[in-house]
Design goal:
By secondary structure, the chain is mostly beta strands. The protein has one domain: Porin. Strands 1-4-5-7-8-10-11-17 form an eight-stranded antiparallel barrel. 23% of the residues are buried. The C terminus is likely disordered. Keywords: Signal. It comes from Winogradskyella arenosi. InterPro entries: Beta-barrel_OMP, OMP/PagP_B-barrel. This is Outer membrane protein with beta-barrel domain.
């Protein structure tokens, strides 16, 4: 028993005597990886799928790394993703124009094992989780109203609304997901500037998907617009007066009855957040504990 305690104490003292802690900050850009279908482009002649990943975009990270010896350490990081626009719907047909994009605004964290091959080259491998945020959809729609609608609105509002006028709608819908778990892998090169500071560049891969939990329309405005571009009726529809059949909130579930009449529930889908990116950053290394001071 005493021998076991002695060995464990020696390992602990050895680890503490080497112990080095460092913090780093980085930023970079990632492109979508293993993109899935996220929308469609529709024209008079064809319909085309659009593919992508909400993991594409700019990101920033802050990391703390603790090295137990010359090669192995543990790394905890938090980061923010400012995702690029992904085309969800693009429609250009007579009488209807739609332009809808979605982008990620997400916070995440990762816990990784770090391995240093030498003083310059290192690798990371660990688990990745999303802490918070949303996928934000921003949509514009311009739909030509029927002659009957134009005549009815002209009479109801006492203003001239000629044939060919449109309903012009802008809205924002926020999507939230269930708690996801993915993985992160990276390989990097570190260049020391002095005993404390170094700069680095790394290639990083995120593998993660997010299953939708719910969504909420947070902004909505529909104007009636004449053919000359002037607004005939401002705020015809609003967040407090949505068009019939439009739900302010939607819940996503794994199963629905074939007799379900609640259109505020839809089947859940998984959306991709996987990406491959390049990061650049700076590291500050705290002074390493000296083993001779522990003796």
């Amino acid at each position: 028993m005493k021998q076991t305690i002695t060995v464990l104490a020696a390992l602990l003292i050895g680890s503490v005597s080497y112990a080095q802690f460092q913090i780093s900050a980085s930023g970079g850009y990632a492109i979508g990886s293993a993109g899935m279908k996220i929308g469609e482009k529709v024209s008079v002649s064809q319909t085309e799928n659009t593919y992508g990943s909400y993991g594409e975009g700019f990101n920033g990270q802050i990391r703390g790394t603790y090295f137990f010896n010359d090669h192995i350490g543990a790394d905890l990081s938090v980061g923010y993703l400012h995702g690029s626009d992904q085309t969800v719907s693009e429609v250009n047909v007579p009488g209807l124009e739609v332009d809808a994009v979605a982008r990620a605004r997400a916070f995440g964290a990762a816990l990784s094992v770090v391995y240093k091959f030498n003083d310059n080259v290192y690798a990371r491998l660990g688990a990745l989780v999303k802490l918070g945020g949303k996928t934000e959809a921003v949509a514009y729609q311009n739909a030509v109203m029927s002659d009957e609608q134009a005549a009815g609105l002209s009479q109801a509002y006492g203003t001239e609304i000629e044939s060919g006028s449109t309903f012009e709608t802008n809205y924002v819908e926020d999507y939230h997901g269930q708690f996801p778990l993915g993985f992160v892998a990276a390989i990097g090169y570190e260049y020391p500037l002095n005993d404390n500071f170094s700069v680095f560049a790394e290639a990083e891969y995120y593998g993660i998907s997010l299953k939708r939990k719910d969504s909420e329309i947070t902004e909505w405005n529909t104007d009636v617009v004449r053919t000359d571009g002037t607004v005939a009726i401002a705020g015809f529809y609003s967040l407090d007066n949505l068009p019939a059949g439009t739900n302010r909130t939607t819940t996503y579930v794994d199963e629905l009855s074939n007799t379900n009449a609640d259109d505020s529930k839809e089947l859940a889908v998984k959306v991709p957040y996987s990406s491959f990116g390049i990061n650049f950053g700076i590291t500050y290394k705290f002074k390493r504990a000296a083993s001779n001071k522990m003796m």
